[in-house]
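Same chain as my last thread, 410 residues:
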Amino acid sequence: MTSRMTFAPRSLAAAALATLFVLGLAAPAAAREAARGPDQHQRDDARDAKKKARKEQADKRAQARQREDGQRQAQAERQRQAADARRDSARREAAQRDQQARRHAQDARQAAERRQSQRRDAQARERAEARQQQAQRRQADARRDQHARAQQERAQQERAHQERAQQERAQREQARRADQRRDAERRQRERVADQRADDRRDANERAERRQRLSDRERDQRIAQQRHRNEEYRRYLEVRRAAERDRYARLQHQRRMQQYRYQQEYYRRLRTMQARWNAQQYDYYRDPYYWTPASYRYHRDGRYYQVNRYAADLLQQAIRYGYQEGYRSGRADRLDGWAPSYRGSFAYQDAIYGYRGYYVSRSEYAHYFREGFRRGYEDGYHTRYQYGRYDDGNYSILQAVLSVILNLQNI
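reply #2:
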């Protein structure tokens, strides 16, 4: 670019000098032209023509030189441009090489930094893994120590449990032996009492045979019994609806143990009644109706006289009441229900074991409920204050039964 700017002023200066030279030559020639003649003019014209030709040739040579100079200058300019282009290309290549070198250096630095960062990360991971392994070892050691302590504690607890179990077994064995002694003594007392009762019963039977009721009194008893039996059958018809209501109420209260007990109670009661219904009952063959009273008992400020068949039935009411009360109380305890023997339908019904003979339903229900209340308390509180358990059966103590009924020989 600089060489092109230099070449333009030089060409202009050369053209200006040539013009001045031509003007300088033409001015004297014009003055001389005015003083010369025709020949001279011809010679001058010839000379001028030659000059003009020489001038044209000079102009042509000058133009040719100018063209050559221009070509040389253009060629030089092209050469300079080519050189500039080469230099620019070289500079660009150098800049690219520098840029590539810088990029390579930067990549190398970045790679080095990445490798260094990776080494640091690897070292950090190794240190973290080492710390974690150390912590795991400490935790494993702590777990082993804890396990060892737990095993020692379990061993101590097992030894203590075994010692307590041995003590409890020894205590249970002592209690069992004491219960056996008490049971043996009680059975002995009961055998003596039963023997005495049998003796009294035999004596009463002998007395009954001697004091047999008349036919009129027998017929009065039979008529009374027929009335009781009819009233009892009407009651059975009425209570069937109460049975269904009782089932629904227990299911609503979610008392499943009491519900199962109630089902078992009705099943046993229906089985007992079906067995009775299958039998043919003959009033005139039952000794109850001609056997005179041989016992008396006191209730509600009055004395009642009964023969041994009615007395046995009242004792049976107490025994059955205790059994059913124990089962009902145990069911309420398993259900987590508050104790309430009066809420049991068996207590309200109070006819289990009653066939409708010998005593009134209200009299039987009274003594059934007396036994039921005591059995319920024993069953709910898991104890045997009023009775005992023998071979799968719950039975009231004879001493308690005697206190409840208190039969006296007449």
